[in-house]
Amino acid sequence: MSTTVKAKGQVTIPKAVRDMLGIGSGSQVDFRRTADGNIVVVPVDAGKQVSRFAKFRGHAGKGMSTDEIMALTRGDG
Fold first, then answer.
1. Which CATH number fits domain 1-46: 3.40.50.150, 3.40.50.2000, 2.10.260.10, 3.90.1640.30?
2. What's the mean per-residue pLDDT of the chain?
3. What region does 37 belong to: left with phi over 0, alpha with psi -120 to 50, or beta?
4. Is 22 exposed, middle or buried (0-12, 13-18, 19+ CB in 10 A)?
5. Do 32 and 40 contact (CB within 8 A), yes or no?
6. Cα separations (Å) of 30 from 33, 40, 42, 59, 74?
7. For 3, what's the count of Cα atoms within 13 Å in the CB-facing half-sphere?
8. Segment holding 55, helix H or strand E
9. For residue 42, what are the β-bridge partners?
10. Deepest in the core among 2, 23, 37, 40, taking most CB within 10 A?
11. Which residues are 40's β-sheet partners?
């Protein structure tokens, strides 16, 4: 099965492949390179999609209190 790359780098995934992978309009896919250099198309599980900001979420831990920050800013600390 083959397809043509359009001017903007877009390709149409053949219907038979979309049906096999269970993907449709709006679905996300990953392109993964195998050890032998082939590229594999893998559907992204909607439940496992991670926002591009997710890796920045978290807790910085115990920091300074507001009073400590103000004292440091004023030169009292």
1. 2.10.260.10
2. 84
3. left
4. exposed
5. yes
6. 10, 8, 5, 29, 51
7. 11
8. none
9. 30
10. 23
11. 32
Can you name the residues that pair with 29 across neighbouring β-strands?
Answer: 43
Residues 12-66 pLDDT 10s: 999 999 999 899 998 889 899 999 999 999 888 766 656 666 667 776 667 788 8
Residues in the chain: 77
Look up residue 51 and give its amino acid: S
Q: Residue 57 corresponds to which tokens in the numbers above?
A: 């979420």
Work out the pLDDT band at 4, boundaries 50, 70, 90: very high
Q: CB burial class (10 A; 0-12, 13-18, 19+) of residue 20? A: exposed
- Per-domain residue ranges of the chain: 1-46
Amino acid (one-letter) located at 68? E
* Residue 38 amino acid letter: N
